[in-house]
Amino acid sequence: MIKFLDLREINSKYRDEIVQACTRVIDSGWYIQGAELKRFESGFSAYCGTRHCIGVANGLDALTLTLRAWKELGKLKEGDEVIVPANTYIASVLAITENRLKPVLVEPDEWTYNLCPTKTAAAITSNTKAILAVHLYGQLAPMPELMALAEAHGLLVLEDSAQAHGAAINGTKAGSWGHASGFSFYPGKNLGALGDAGAVTTNNDELATTIRALANYGSHKKYENLYQGVNSRLDEIQASMLNVKLKYLDDETIIRKSIAARYTSEINNKNLILPVDKKAIINYSSRHVFHLYVIRTENRYAFQEYLTSRGIQTVIHYPVPPHKQIAYEDFNELKYPITEKIHDQVLSLPIGPALKEYEVEKIIEVCNNF
Ligand SMILES: *Cc1c(COP(=O)(O)O)cnc(C)c1O
User: Fold this and answer.
1) Are strands 180-184 and 156-160 parallel, antiparallel or unpaired?
2) How many whole angstroms separate alpha carbon 185 and alpha carbon 163?
3) Phi, psi dihedral angles at 333 (to 5 degrees)
4) Which of 50, 70, 52 lies closest to 176, judged by CA?
5) How many angstroms does the Cα of residue 370 sit away from the middle of ligand 1?
6) E strand or H helix at 183, and its extent?
7) The model's pTM
């Protein structure tokens, strides 16, 4: 069976270094808020090109705590509208509703699966205060246009960069476009820990200080609490794993892109819609880092079964959009035809730094014979 994503294989490549890093932490006797976290925060902010990186417990917390910090700083208040793509992973929406802000779900562009400036502009009302721009599947949202729109309307922009570590437009990376950005280092992400981890990047000093306090019981100084905060920290063991893996992120991205380039140029089947940014893929443009290679087909489940029967594991990202979830009952009657069509048709082919060339060739051949 060709696995969708072989995490064991991916991490075994760095096994010696990871074990050394882990041993170093164990022997240091210091497990929370120490040297490994500091090193990761400065390494990752340098990587993204931002002044600050604040390690937190996971990607959802990175988004939730950023919105919460803007509330504490008086930039957002309960009930304010936040624009978010309707086809995102539910975590983006959870971060908004956890803060009692109002998610305004907007249909994505049908071909890039990201927010489009025109539909985003049409959704802005006098209550709109922020845009949560998701770089879905690893492709940057149209950030130059969205930032211009935000500036014209005085909106905050939070990037959900959980799937887009290292993606860039004209050299400016995910995490440094918006006023802040949330990252996840969940094991399956392009930069993955060996457990849960996340971070916020920003150039804003005040925001960074506030998020740091909120994530540490609301405390900016030991035993003094400014806010009713939470405990959301990136521990030393996970930070040490990330310090190892950050060094290899760009090499792994190159592998992802070359697999994507092969899929895009060699899969020729009129029943399958491939990611459309062909030019970008073939030029190895940096806009898309292919966290996922998502194709669409009208007969999605039949295609998935066919691939399974030929030894190829696939995953659906995602089968049910947020507005159709029981958790968001109030939204269940809303109609988002493009989003619903995407959710009915998408299927993710195996992609990742451990996928072998012969596996890529087999996947291409099997897809072409469908
Ligand atoms: C993974 C993911 C998150 C959440 O990250 P966790 O670390 O799992 O909490 C948020 N948004 C998107 C788009 C994601 O893919």
Assistant:
1) parallel
2) 9
3) -85, -10
4) 50
5) 32
6) strand 180-184
7) 0.97
Phi, psi of 349, rounded to the nearest 5 degrees: -80, 155
Q: What angle do CA 294, 44, 65 make, to 5 degrees?
A: 80
Ligand 1 center to residue 135 CA distance, Å? 11
What's phi and psi for 221, nearest 5 deg? Answer: -150, 135
Assess contact for 236 and 34: CB atoms under 8 A. Answer: yes
The span from the first CA to the last CA of the chain, in angstroms, equals: 18
Q: What is the pLDDT of residues 204-245, one digit of tens each?
A: 999 999 999 999 999 999 999 999 999 999 999 999 999 999
Q: CA dist 61 to 124, 162, 186, 302, 356, Å?
A: 26, 11, 12, 37, 34
Q: Which residue has the tokens 């399956």?
A: 188
Q: How far apart are CA 149 and CA 35, in angstroms?
A: 40
- Residues with CB under 6 Å of ligand 1 are 58-60, 88-89, 91-92, 134, 160, 162-163, 184, 186, 196, 198
* pLDDT tens, residue by residue, 237-258: 999 999 999 999 999 999 999 9
Structure letter (DSSP) for residue 274: P
DSSP H or E run through 129: strand 128-134
Q: Give, for ligand 1, the residue of 5, 61, 67, 89 to mutate: max count of ligand atoms closer than 8 Å to Cβ.
A: 89
Q: Which residue in 234, 241, 288, 239 sits closest to 261, CA to CA?
A: 288
Cα 49 from Cα 80, distance rounded (Å): 30
Are the C-beta atoms of residues 118 and 165 closer than 8 Å to each other?
no
